[in-house]
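User: Can you predict the 3D structure for this chain?
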Amino acid sequence: MRGGFAFFLTLLLLQALVAAANHSLAQAGACLFAGGLFVGTAAFLLPFGPGFAAVFAAGLACDANADVPFGTHALLFASAHSVLFHFRDRLPHDETVGLVLIGLVCNLALFAFLTLLRIHLSPAPAVEWSRAACDLVLSQIAIALAGPWFFHLQRSALALASAGPARPLL
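Assistant: Here is the predicted structure, written as C-alpha cells:
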C-alpha cells in the first residue's frame, strides 16, 4: 500500500499544479484538463488494487472543486485505470514516449466524455464546443510537455517508497 500512497501524493501535487495553472488561465477564459496524467501510469507501475485506490482517491480530490456531480472524476479515472490495466501488456509503456502517447489518448477520451456530459447545461452549445476544442488543444500540449517530467516524478516517488520500479524511464 506504500506504493499506492506515494503515487496518490504525486497525483495530489498534479492536482495542485493544474489548479494553479487554471487560476492563471481563468482571465483568458481557458482551462487545462490533465486527466490523462492522472490515469496514464498507475496501471503500468502498480498492482491493480493500489493503483485503483490511488486513481480513485485522486478522482475524488478532483471532484471536490469541479462543477460536475461528486464522484464523476473518480468514476471516470477508475474506469480508465481498469481499461489500461486490462490492456497493459499490449500497450507500449516501457519508454516515456509511449506513456506520453497513452496519456494523450486517455486525456482525449476523458475530456470528450466530460464535455459530452456537460454540454447540455450550456445555454449556447455551439460556443461551448469551440471553447472546448481550444481547451483540449491547450491541454494536450500541456500533457505532451509536462508528461515526461511527471512520469519521472511518479517513478522517483515509487522508488523512494521502495514500492516500484527503481530504473528510470528511457
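The radius of gyration is 16 Å. The helical segments are 2-25, 35-39, 42-45, 48-63, 72-87, 96-118, 125-160.
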